[in-house]
Amino acid sequence: MDFTLTEEQKLLKKNIGDFARRELAPLVREIDEKEGFSWEIWHKLASIGLPGLAGPEEYGGAGVDSLLTQTMVIEEIARHDFSSAANVVSNWSIMNLLTVGNEGQKDRYLRPLCIGEAVGAFAQTEPNAGSDVASMRATARLVDGHYIINGEKVFITQAGEAEFTIVMARTSNEKGTNGISALLVDKDAPGFILGKKEAKLGFRGSTTRSLAFDDCRIPASNLLGEEGKGFKTAMKMLTGGRVITAAQALGQAQAALDASVNYAKERPQFGKPIGSFQLIQGMLADMAVQIESARLLTYYAAWLKDNDQPFNIYASMAKTLATDVAMKAAVDAVQIFGGYGFMRDYPVEKIMRNVKITQIYEGTNQIQRLIIARELLGEKGSFREMYGHNKT
Ligand SMILES: Cc1cc2nc3c(=O)[nH]c(=O)nc-3n(C[C@H](O)[C@H](O)[C@H](O)COP(=O)(O)OP(=O)(O)OC[C@H]3O[C@@H](n4cnc5c(N)ncnc54)[C@H](O)[C@@H]3O)c2cc1C
Questions:
Q1: Does residue 392 fall inside a structural domain?
Q2: What CATH number is given to the structural domain containing 144?
Q3: What's the chain's Rg over C-alpha atoms?
């Protein structure tokens, strides 16, 4: 196997790493304490083209469509600021969904996202339909050239900041996922109601709100893609998203290791730096082994996608391993820092609080394990069963 990075990848990794260290890292504490999406930071990210990096060139993006390159970029940002990395990922996912739209929709909704002028939101989760997405109840009825949407969504990233929301709702009573469609809802659509802003454990540089739809009326032309195909489109987007979620976790895990190594060299106890104690060395070594293993699996999953090979099971494996490894690394980093690790003045408690979300969103790690097992067993509904690939 060839592990050599292309010149473009090396350059992007270096430039984005330098940018994140210089421009984002000093703001991490402020971002965490202010709680909410920062347009100032978003414009900073836009100044180097990050929101649109993965977007199509004809709509103002940079056209970097390699998942491996995207993975490395997100890892570099997340190494210095988790929220910015996760916000960029959210933007890329929404841009990805918009690529199934028609030219008019792409011009209106995709272009502003590519150039960093606006953000969008994606509303799938409901109070009673989280992991069990297919049980969603929100409805969209076609009446006189308009869809009338009713229902409720929760935990929606960037709700309140977003110009529009891609809302998943049932357009037919057909059971299961074939009755679910994706709809573009502008922020000023009648009957579109913003819920309260959530106070969160981590990922606090984003705004999270619930949404309600009370006979919310949108033109029928705001259907995104084909009626009844919304769920399948979203699931395809989520598969790539899992690899990028692994990248968010990896960046934070690396930050936990970097901070721990530095601290272990500097902190004296019993007359020696704590890094000279074998129990501390063991923790550092385990962190390094696990992070490197997770990185290899994540890059492999991305490489499979880039080479048009089935990667579903690897995306789930990468997401599970990288996010579990990152959580363990963050907890161990706090341990290595001792009491200082528990203090907000030090970086590692924020890593611990941020990384927790990577085990929950984009499909919880329990759901990833179910996907992996289903693929192994070739069960109904598995990627293998649906698309007939032998190697998944
Ligand atoms: C900060 C944040 C941002 C988010 N952003 C968005 C967004 O922008 N858009 C959006 O639509 N959603 C978003 N979400 C929602 C997120 O995707 C869901 O929280 C997630 O899918 C889990 O759903 P749930 O919270 O309802 O948990 P549940 O599905 O109720 O799960 C609870 C627990 O049960 C486990 N579990 C569930 N089913 C099974 C099973 N079959 N077998 C074993 N264990 C199981 C889960 O793994 C979990 O541990 C966000 C969530 C958060 C916290």
A1: no
A2: 2.40.110.10
A3: 21
Domain extent, residue 210, equals: 120-227
Query: Could you report the per-residue pLDDT of 326-379, keeping only the tens digit for each?
Result: 999 999 999 999 999 999 999 999 999 999 999 999 999 999 999 999 999 987
Same domain? For 377 and 237 the reply is: yes
pTM for the full predicted model: 0.96
How far, in Å, from the CA of 231 to the mean position of ligand 1?
Answer: 16
| Residues 137 and 236 grouped into a single domain | no
pLDDT of residue 174: 75
Name the closest-CA residue to atom 52, ligand 1.
Answer: 155
CATH of the domain at 32: 1.10.540.10
Residue to mutate (ligand 1; options 89, 131, 185; most atoms within 8 A of CB): 131
Do both 377 and 236 map to the same domain?
yes
Residues of the chain with pLDDT under 70: 175, 380-392
**66 — phi, psi (to 5°)?**
-75, 125
Using DSSP bridges, classify how beta strands 120-123 and 164-170 pair: parallel, antiparallel or unpaired: parallel
Residue 370 structure tokens: 């179910």
Q: What's the pLDDT at 392?
A: 37
Cβ(239) to ligand 1 under 6 A?
no
How do residues 102-155 score in pLDDT, each as one tens digit?
999 999 999 999 999 999 999 999 999 999 999 999 999 999 999 999 999 999
Query: Is residue 37 lining ligand 1, measured as CB closer than 6 Å?
Result: no
Q: Which two tokens stand for residue 363?
A: 């499909």
Question: Residue 233 to residues 228, 362, 373: CA-CA distances in angstroms?
Answer: 10, 14, 23
The backbone torsions φ and ψ at residue 25, rounded to the nearest 5 degrees and listed phi first, read -50, -40
Last residue in a domain, options 190, 210, 227: 227
